[in-house]
Structure formats: C-alpha cells, structure tokens
Amino acid sequence: MADYMLMVLExxxxxxxxxxKAVAELIEKRTAFEDELRRAGIxxxxxxxxxxxxxxxxxxxxxxxDVKRGPxxxxxxxxxxxxxxxxxxxxxxxxxxAVCPTLDVDEVDVRPVTKGELPEGTLDKPGKIFxxxxxxxxxxxxxxxxxxxxxxxxxxxxxxxxxFLGGVRLEPPRTGRRVATRGERRASFDGPFLESKEVIxxxxxLRMASIEEVVRWASETRFxxxxxxxxxxxxxx
Length: 237
Prior knowledge:
This protein has 237 residues and is of the alpha+beta class.
C-alpha cells in the first residue's frame, strides 16, 4: 500500500451557479464517498476548502512581498477538496478518483505522496485550520523538482510547533494521473500537468486565528522565496 492524494480541482463559477438543492446533494454524495473510504480503512484524512475568493496567495519578487486575494479560478480550476488515501497502486487510486462525486467540469488529480505527517487527533481540535498549498512555477518538471527540493530542505524544520498540524509532499506531476469527464465517461490521463501556471508540490496545515496571521508567518519563510503559498481555510463541520 502507498499514500495518494486525490485533489478535487473545482470549476468555481460552475459550483457558485448551483442551486441550493444541488449543492446539498453534492455534499451528501461526498460525505457518503468519504464514509465509504473510511469503512474500507484507507482514508487518512479529507477536507473541503472554502472558496478561493476567501483565500490568499503569497510569494516574493526579490524584496517585494506579493499577496494576492482570491478568487483564483480565472487562472484555472481551484483546489476545492482532497482525500488522502492508502491504495495498492496508482491505478487503484485513479479508480477511486473516478467515482469521487464532482461536477462534470471538475477534475481530480491523483498524486503519490513522497512523505507525509498527520499527528493523530490534531485536526479534530477546535479552531480555524488553514491548508497551505506549496506552489512552483517553472518551465520544466526537472526545474520544478529542484524548486520543491530546495523548499523542502529549507523549510522542513521551521514550522511553528504550536500551530503545525502535519501535511504531505507530493511526487512530481509525471507520476500522477488526472481524472476528468470526457463526453459521457470518466477518463484517466497520465501526467505531467505543467500547463498550469503553478503546480502543487505539497499541502500542510496550520491552526491559527486568522488568514492574516498565516500570511504574516508565511511572509518570513522560504516557501515564498522559491515558490508561493496558496492559503485556504478548511470548512469545519
């Protein structure tokens, strides 16, 4: 068994246009999907993120700190939900992604996990939890891997111990799959997926009082020197 992240890339305008009944039905289907993964003993974590209009993306251009407000959907589909699972192979993980409840315009990226940490019970405690997606923007995958290696080397021991809730680093895009609707069927495509402006290299979680506090912390880290962070709050149920 190996760890995989199923990352649901949502077409946010399409989701925003859904009537309330359709939204409730999608939530119900995703809850049932999550419960099925949990009963099978293969779910390590899952979460739904608030819309990207409520998020921020932070990077640096030399000495200049660049903080952008969402939404980010105009730059492509936005990460809306994730499922961290165990699966025997990427083929099996892609089969699960193919039955993950989504809209036809959504896609699901399946990426192997290089390494992950999830302290037991930390995500169940009260308080706001923010998902921070580590982004790299390069012309080639080899360059992207070097950026992620550098970020990892310079940040892995520098998380705030009282706020850090674990996370994952992902394998390069070429090792992944993308599941999307084509016509009337769900199809799986091999990576890489560098057509996106920025590619996710990992996700980690912080418990902090506000997104502004996360931005202040992130602005002093090497994440935003070599790449960027997209910060989104997790929905709490």
